[in-house]
Design goal:
single chain, 8 strands, globular
């Protein structure tokens, strides 16, 4: 297979009622681990990196590696620029070859969020790329630098936003938060059901680290198709490396990071029920 549009992956997931993991990566080893996991379980894959992470993983370095890995993968793989905040970096990702971008204008009032999202949609369409955007406000923050309050997405605003922006996927806030949850997450399934009934595009759940399999399955049943996973993979890598330290050979460490990332990705693929879907997706796209 090769690099595909995220829209195609999510449309197949919508038609067949399963979820697809969007796995954040920070280095080559994590990219390799995510691809290894998807290939082993024959699952479609979304590789992603958020703009706030670029101070650690410069886009001109990590981006081409992500695109090259997707092109060489034996499963359908999309490469997604997550939480894009600036037109400059969104354009850079598109020029590198990312097949999908997210513009995050959720901090703006609704009218400005719609207007700014429309501008980004027009840019992305020049590249044939999928566009995700957010309405409401997911708690925490992508890099943990601030602790944003959750602002539950309004059903009417979600419907208006999707209609006026013509985006391909909509990230919503139903009590979910970035990072690890403090206690058990309490998600508004009633609001998710309402939005799913009114919005005719795939829905996205940010803040997937720490949600139980049972809750994931309920979210997928009510319309969530893309699920972002970042913190749990980063934590898995750190924990596994610490357990095996000290290393006396760099390449043993290198393989440990790959394997740690792969194990977390496989665990979530199974929870989201995207394993074994490759042949179906190949036929679809």
């Amino acid at each position: 297979m090769t690099l595909v549009k995220m829209k195609e992956i999510l449309e197949h997931a919508e038609a067949n009622q399963y979820g697809v993991g969007a796995f954040s990566v920070a280095n080559m080893e994590m990219v390799m681990g995510a691809v290894r996991a998807a290939e082993e379980l024959r699952s479609p894959l979304i590789l992603q990196i958020a703009e706030v992470r670029l101070k650690h993983s410069p886009l001109h370095i990590i981006g081409p590696a992500m695109v090259a890995a997707a092109k060489a993968a034996t499963v359908p793989a999309a490469v997604h620029f997550d939480h894009g905040l600036t037109e400059e970096k969104i354009r850079e990702a598109l020029e590198i070859g990312f097949s999908s971008i997210m513009y995050d204008g959720s901090h703006h009032p609704l009218g400005k969020n719609i207007a700014e999202t429309q501008k980004i949609v027009a840019i992305a369409r020049e590249y044939g790329a999928t566009v995700e955007a957010e309405i409401g406000q997911v708690g925490g923050s992508e890099d943990g630098s601030v602790d944003l309050e959750v602002l539950i997405t309004s059903t009417e605003e979600a419907k208006q936003f999707a209609s006026e922006t013509m985006i391909d996927a909509l990230a919503i806030a139903i009590g979910n938060a970035h990072g690890m949850y403090k206690g058990d997450p309490h998600l508004r399934m009633d609001r998710l059901e309402e939005i799913h009934a009114e919005v005719d595009i795939p829905l996205v759940l940010h803040g997937g680290s720490g949600i139980s399999e049972k809750v994931f399955r309920k979210c997928i049943h009510h319309g969530i198709r893309k699920i972002n996973v970042a913190t749990s993979t980063f934590n898995q890598v750190v924990n596994m490396v610490n357990e095996e330290a000290p290393f006396h050979n760099f390449f043993s460490y290198h393989e440990s990071v790959i394997e740690a990332a792969a194990e977390n990705v496989k665990r979530h693929i199974r929870m989201f029920q995207s394993d074994g879907r490759v042949e179906e997706v190949k036929a679809y796209v």
